[in-house]
Amino acid sequence: MTTFEQMAYGPMGKIVKEAMPTSEADPIGVWAAGLSLYSAAISRTVRLDNRRPVVVWTVLAGRSAIGRKGYALNTATAILGKTKIGGFIHTRRRDGIANGPTLVDTLSKLELETVGQDGGIDGRAIVVEEEWAAVLKDQKRCSKFSTLFRLAWDGKPISNRTKKDGLQSVAQPLLGFHAHITPGEWGKYVSSSEALGGSYNRLLPVLVERSKMLPYNNKPKVPDTAAIQEAFEWATEESRVMSFTREAGERYDEIRAEVEAKMAELPELLASYMERAAEQVQRVAAVLAATEMSEDISKEAVEAAWAFVSYSMASVEKLVKDAATDGGSPKPMKSPEELIRDVLKRHGGDAPSSALLRALWGRMNAAGIKDAVADMDDVEMITEKSKGRGAPKTIYRLLGHEDQGQGEKKPDPEFKVIELKPKAKLVQVNANPFVGLL
Questions:
Q1: CA–CA dist 419, 426 (Å, integer)
Q2: What does the alpha-carbon distance between residue 397 and residue 347 come to, in Å, rounded to a whole number?
Q3: Within a 10 A sphere around the Cβ of 30, how many other Cβ atoms?
């Protein structure tokens, strides 16, 4: 398993190490929180050479109390709070953003507040969700949130139109993100459909636990942060474009190949969390290079970044596999094809697309079902023209099923007619009466 020593690098790594003797937090948790806060703080002026943002979004996954997630965030905040970054954290920290319109509104208003100020418009923000599970429940009710959230990580324009304010838009989102969740909540609220859609591969979840137990009267000590302060001033005084050195670029290409090889061996759901692992390495390495006041990303910075991202990949694998465990007994993770077959069998061999969508809600969307069926030899998709002007109806059929074409069999209702009086009868359906004129 990757260790903190392998990922700790540069001034940030040195300061986190020096802070750990008086903190009960997991050093990897402090490292993750620090990367999120620092990358968000420098995001206005520091970019990758492909113009992508450098923001690093992290999630601490640990059991309540013993995970020490809050300790990790507090330690990172205390370290960076001694520098000018503390002002950014104090004024730009937000939470409770549970829908797309609120996300756009938050970033848009931050930009508007800085119009005309020295240095120009500043839309930087850091969203910190210490109770992420509660927010995830609300986010599921908003169809726009996932798309806007992904676009913000990509640094692409986001917008929303309201009756009150008209069109709100943010041309270049500068959004940082950090969250806390328990492993149990992960299995309950982090949906597979969102994972397959790409929402969660923008995040770097890491498993954390208490590093030590300290006396009740322990007083955390914050080490000297002069190096981080100097690096922050360098990063924000003018635009910085981060690029690999030749050796770093070659190592990065090797890492990309390693990531894709690992993804090919994993089930689709697990692999979906890792689709942006290579870019995550590039972003983390760029942030580490910025702490050294250099626009050249070294091979050493890439190795440290890869150690952190590798740990995150291992954490995700454990979280997802544990989520597939019920009562201590492992449940096999079914493939999309197996899920589709199960639904069709329950419906007697064939079912309309609407029935599959209802049964697989939270796991697959319409496009995902079509893509899966296209590669299945035993399932066919049939399009039937509807009567009148209605849209064509899509039917999925499991070939060779004994009840093929029969649909889901349901018992016919039993009717009894009991005469009450002339022109009025009591109609009884399965012993549930209602009165109607016949």
A1: 6
A2: 10
A3: 31
Angstrom distances, CA of residue 422 to CA of 36, 426, 437: 78, 11, 10
Of residues 140, 170, 139, the one with CA closest to residue 152: 170
- Going from the C-alpha of 401 to that of each of 338, 344, 346, 358, 381, the distances in angstroms are 15, 9, 11, 21, 15
313 Cβ contact list (under 8 Å, min separation 6): 262, 273, 274, 277
CA quadruple 319, 322, 323, 328: dihedral, nearest 10: -160
Is there a contact between 11 and 291 (Cβ–Cβ < 8 Å)? yes
Backbone torsion region of residue 108, taken as left when φ is above 0, otherwise alpha when ψ lies between -120 and 50, otherwise beta:
alpha
Query: Which helix (H) or strand (E) covers residue 379, if one does?
Result: strand 379-384
Q: Is 294 left (phi over 0), alpha (psi -120 to 50) or beta?
A: beta
What is the SS3 assignment for 20?
Answer: helix
Say which residues have a Cβ less than 8 Å from residue 356's Cβ, sequence separation at least 6. 340, 343, 344, 364, 369, 396
Q: What angle do CA 214, 219, 221 make, to 5 degrees?
A: 110
Total residue length of the chain:
438
Q: DSSP string covering 405-437, please?
A: TS-S--PPPPEEEEEEETTEEEEEETTEEEEE-
**Number of CB atoms found within 10 A of residue 295's CB:** 16
pLDDT per position in the chain (438 positions), as tens?
A: 679 999 999 999 999 999 999 999 999 999 999 999 999 999 999 999 999 999 999 999 999 989 999 999 999 999 999 999 999 999 999 999 999 999 999 999 999 999 988 778 999 999 999 999 999 988 888 889 999 999 999 999 999 988 877 899 999 999 999 999 999 999 888 877 777 777 789 999 999 999 999 999 999 999 999 999 999 999 999 999 999 999 999 999 999 999 999 888 888 888 888 999 999 999 999 999 999 999 999 999 999 999 999 999 999 989 988 887 654 444 556 778 888 998 899 888 989 988 888 787 656 778 888 888 988 888 999 988 777 677 788 899 998 876 555 544 444 444 444 455 555 444 444 444 444 433
